[in-house]
Amino acid sequence: MLVVTRFRVPEVESQAFRLAIERAREALAARPGFLAGIVGRNVDDPELWTLTTRWEHVGAYRRALSSYDVKMHAVPLLGRALDEPSAYEVAEPGTDLNTAVARSLG
Fold first, then answer.
1. Which of UniProt's keywords are assigned here (predicted)?
2. Coil, helix or strand for 80?
3. How many helices and strands in the chain, by DSSP H and E?
4. Domain assignments of the chain as residue spans, ordered by start
């Protein structure tokens, strides 16, 4: 699964935010089920940032959010995220997408 979290950060806060988002990525990366993570900044609108992570399954991501280190270093940052859906299924060839049933936690 993919988690795409976007942030709007005033330019004057960009240096501090960059350090905070990297700490958040590192805390998430230490959790079981984490596959990859990348921090990005929009080319045309430098106040728009993203933290994109990939997980084995939704359960791994949800369990990661409850760990102490993630609560300390990522959750406060995630509270600054734009209010929009952030979890996505990976659209692999030949798979069914967005079925209207409860997802397994893994």
1. Monooxygenase, Oxidoreductase
2. coil
3. 4, 4
4. 2-88
* Domain 2-88 classification at class level: alpha beta
- In 3-state terms, what secondary structure has residue 66? coil
pLDDT tens-digit map of 40-66 = 999 999 999 999 999 999 999 999 999
Residue 49: exposure state from Cβ atoms within 10 A (0-12, 13-18, ≥19): buried
CA distance 2 to 52: 7
Interacting residues of 86 by C-beta distance below 8 A, sequence separation 6+? 3, 4, 5, 6
Per DSSP, 33 falls in state: T
pTM reported for the whole predicted model: 0.84
Tell me the one-letter amino acid at 45.
D
**Tokens 């509270």 found at:** 79
Q: Is 47 exposed, middle or buried (0-12, 13-18, 19+ CB in 10 A)?
A: middle
